[in-house]
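User: Hi! I have a protein structure encoded as tokens and I'd like to know what sequence might fold into it. I'm fairly new to this, so please keep things simple.
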């Protein structure tokens, strides 16, 4: 393993860091220039992968993650060269969570991978590193899939920190993917922070192509099913249950989270659309003093930022305990840097959950 680690780990981790940067700065007005500015970080990875394959190095997790990273770069550059529609770039970047999923099983074995899946503030902390350098317990901790393989609908993925102990209650985050997304991929938008700061994470997949934003709602019962299952196996803090999501997932935070029967204590819609009737029709008792953290990008091209400003104002006027965060350089993509702040916000505003 040491040889494969030395050959592949450095260029792979650099490439994944660059891909995460590109995913965070996926903006149709500037993305071509952003990609050009990073030059070709994948060249070193391609050479290292060729060396590993030529030597028949056995570390398949590193090799699999490297192939996904190279596929992401290849598809991004092809899409830009051919003038493909912007959604081709989104599809190319779906290789990033697949690479992270392939790599993560090595986090307890390789110090560099352990550090990669930690918040930068903890990467030089020996105690934090040692605490997390332990293997997952099958079915009890780590990444666990419940009928949620890629291509399936209606299942959910769970992450339980490997250092989980039942002698205290843990905060819960339910993170909802965007339209046509999948929970098994969106899990990786949050795993590093759940692992760093100690939270149990659910990433469900919508029952349909996207969340039930109008008409019949099979997704809320499905979300409650996942919540019931997790609460039956791990100890969840009843005052810290966050429902968050990106784009359509953020909009579904409003649809489901403002309902009187919602069991979530905090809402954090990101890059979501909103209609004033959502606030007007929300249960008054539910909305009163409900902690809501609205996050939106000033450069969002799908749902203009004015939508989020109006949402925050309407929810506050209706009695919600609303915070509004507008990120100047954010387009319509998920800003992983907010996750730690959302966990800290939830810790500072405890609210007893219903049910």
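Assistant: Happy to help. Inverse folding works backwards from shape to sequence: for each of the 355 positions I chose a residue that suits the local structure. Here it is:
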């Amino acid at each position: 393993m040491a040889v494969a680690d030395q050959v592949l780990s450095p260029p792979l981790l650099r490439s994944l860091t660059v891909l995460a940067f590109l995913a965070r700065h996926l903006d149709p007005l500037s993305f071509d220039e952003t990609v050009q500015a990073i030059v070709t970080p994948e060249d070193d990875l391609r050479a290292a992968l060729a060396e590993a394959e030529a030597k028949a190095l056995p570390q398949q997790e590193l090799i699999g993650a490297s192939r996904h990273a190279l596929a992401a770069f290849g598809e991004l550059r092809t899409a830009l060269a051919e003038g493909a529609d912007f959604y081709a770039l989104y599809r190319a970047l779906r290789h990033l969570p697949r690479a992270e999923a392939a790599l993560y099983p090595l986090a307890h074995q390789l110090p560099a991978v352990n550090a990669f899946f930690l918040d930068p503030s903890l990467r030089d902390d020996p105690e934090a590193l040692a605490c997390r350098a332990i293997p997952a317990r099958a079915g009890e901790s780590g990444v666990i899939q419940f009928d949620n393989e890629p291509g399936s609908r209606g299942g959910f993925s769970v992450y339980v920190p490997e250092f989980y102990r039942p002698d205290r209650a843990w905060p819960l985050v339910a993170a909802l993917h965007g339209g046509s997304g999948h929970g098994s991929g969106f899990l990786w938008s949050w795993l590093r922070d759940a692992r760093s700061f100690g939270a149990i994470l659910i990433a469900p997949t919508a029952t349909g192509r996207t969340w039930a934003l109008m008409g019949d709602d099979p997704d809320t019962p499905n979300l409650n099913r996942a919540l019931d299952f997790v609460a039956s196996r791990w100890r969840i803090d009843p005052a810290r249950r966050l429902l968050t999501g990106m784009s359509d997932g953020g909009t579904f935070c409003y649809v489901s989270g403002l309902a009187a029967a919602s069991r979530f204590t905090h809402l954090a819609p990101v890059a979501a659309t909103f209609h004033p009737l959502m606030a007007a029709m929300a249960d008054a008792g539910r909305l009163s003093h409900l902690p809501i953290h609205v996050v939106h990008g000033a450069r969002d091209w799908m749902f203009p930022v004015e939508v989020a400003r109006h949402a925050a104002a309407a929810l506050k006027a209706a009695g919600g305990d609303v915070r509004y965060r507008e990120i100047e350089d954010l387009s319509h993509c998920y800003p992983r840097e907010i996750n730690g702040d959302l966990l800290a916000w939830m810790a500072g505003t405890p609210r007893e959950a219903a049910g």
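A useful reference point when you look it over: Residues 137-348 form a domain with the Rossmann fold fold (CATH 3.40.50.1820). Feel free to ask if any position seems puzzling.
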